């Protein structure tokens, strides 16, 4: 993914989470390109990524539109991803990671450090972190060597907010989002350390704990109805979205 596409993806995802598109609103390439000051190609590719993440859906009239989802749907997908990613990390730790894979994971850690350990993160830093984060998780999943795990995660990634980076910018300000990212990246460091040391149980626990940041982001919005209305417009389409009845 090139840098322009990464920036456009971060911008569109953030706009969706902050409620800048109404429920069922059509998202067409040309108006979005003009609004973002970007060419149509990165917008088209970003929209395809957002559809894969379950945030938008194809529109009968062409292009895409906002889709409906519930908080239960989101929370369930996040929890399942944590279990599966934790298991993948455990397999990798117990079977042993190659030197090449460890170098790639450390490269991700270094890139993440450069993005989050700044006085203030800019949009390009967010885009760089999202790109790194997706690559980090993909390396662990591919590295575990379990095809069933990869197929399951691929299917799960199509659920709303279940993809690794889907909820990263979900805060009321970039400064607050940066604090959450720093916390998430500290877990990345601990996870790589556990894999290097062959600590399977610890790697699994860290993998499951890591996705709790996404779940906490969800709770953060739901406990503040005014913020939730801004950040999660799709949930306004479903009554009683948080309950289990």
UniProtKB/TrEMBL annotation:
Pfam family, one: FCD
Chain ranges of the HTH gntR-type domain: 2-69
SUPFAM superfamilies, per database record: GntR ligand-binding domain-like, Winged helix' DNA-binding domain
MF term (GO), any: DNA-binding transcription factor activity
Keywords: DNA-binding, Transcription, Transcription regulation
SMART domains registered for this protein in UniProt: FCD, HTH_GNTR
Coiled coil: none
Name of the protein in its database record: GntR family transcriptional regulator of vanillate catabolism
The organism of origin for this protein: Pseudacidovorax intermedius
């Amino acid at each position: 993914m090139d840098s322009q596409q990464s920036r456009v993806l971060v911008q569109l995802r953030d706009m969706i989470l902050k409620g800048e598109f109404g429920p069922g609103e059509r998202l067409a390439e040309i108006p979005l390109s003009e609004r973002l000051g970007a060419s149509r190609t990165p917008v088209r590719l970003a929209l395809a990524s957002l559809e894969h993440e379950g945030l938008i859906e194809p529109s009968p009239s062409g292009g895409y539109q906002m889709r409906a989802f519930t908080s239960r749907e989101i929370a369930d997908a996040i929890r399942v991803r944590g279990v599966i990613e934790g298991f993948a990390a455990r397999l990798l730790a117990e079977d042993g990671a190659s030197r090449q894979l460890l170098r790639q994971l450390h490269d991700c850690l270094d890139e993440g450090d450069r993005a989050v350990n700044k006085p203030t993160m800019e949009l390009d830093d967010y885009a760089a972190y999202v790109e790194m984060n997706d690559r980090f998780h993909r390396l662990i999943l591919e590295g575990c060597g379990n095809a069933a795990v990869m197929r399951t995660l691929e299917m799960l990634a199509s659920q709303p907010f279940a993809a690794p980076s889907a909820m990263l910018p979900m805060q009321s300000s970039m400064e607050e989002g940066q604090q959450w990212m720093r916390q998430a990246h500290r877990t990345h460091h601990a996870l790589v350390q556990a894999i290097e040391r062959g600590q399977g149980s610890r790697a699994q626990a860290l993998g499951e704990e890591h996705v709790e940041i996404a779940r906490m982001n969800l709770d953060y919005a739901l406990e503040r109805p005014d913020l939730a209305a801004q950040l999660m417009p799709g949930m306004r389409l479903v009554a009683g979205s948080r309950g289990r009845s």
